[in-house]
Amino acid sequence: MKHLRAFIAGMVLPGILFPILLLIAWKMGMTTHPHTHLMFFMPWIWGLWNVFYFSFLKDHLPGNVSVKLLLTGAILGLLVALVAVLWVHIPELVGLPSQLHYAPLLVAPIVYALLWRYVVEPLNGILGL
């Protein structure tokens, strides 16, 4: 039951945020890209990552709970940024200049770490994890 609650807590933020991002992409006319469907997997990825945190990372990462959650979010952010930059080519799709094509590799881990610490951690607490 603990893993189900962890999965649900991890899915909440992207489950709310990514449909809004898809609506914005649709309004900008970006729905024809073949990798747009990958956004539908983000809630599942966040949920599974939260389960992975409680199953493995919580016991193996250094520091207190806040540091562990920051590291957990940063690792996920780096993995997502690597896929977005190297496989899906998101910076090119949104029209970033060539000097900034690899900026998501720095920005995404920071943003994910903060989201994980300040959004997912309270959700975990609400669900009694």
Largest sheet, if any?
none
Number of domains: 1
Taken from the alpha-carbon principal axes, the silhouette is globular
Helical content stands at: over 70%
How much is the average pLDDT? 83
Beta-strand proportion: under 5%
Task: Please characterize this protein's 3D structure.
With 129 residues, the protein is mostly helical. It has one domain. The protein contains 5 helices and no strands. The N and C termini lie close together (10 Å).
Summarize the topology:
Elements: H1 2-27, H2 42-60, H3 65-88, H4 90-93, H5 104-126
Helix pairs in contact: 1-2, 1-5, 2-3, 3-5
What tags apply to this protein structure?
129 residues, mainly alpha
Short description:
With 129 residues, the protein is mainly α.
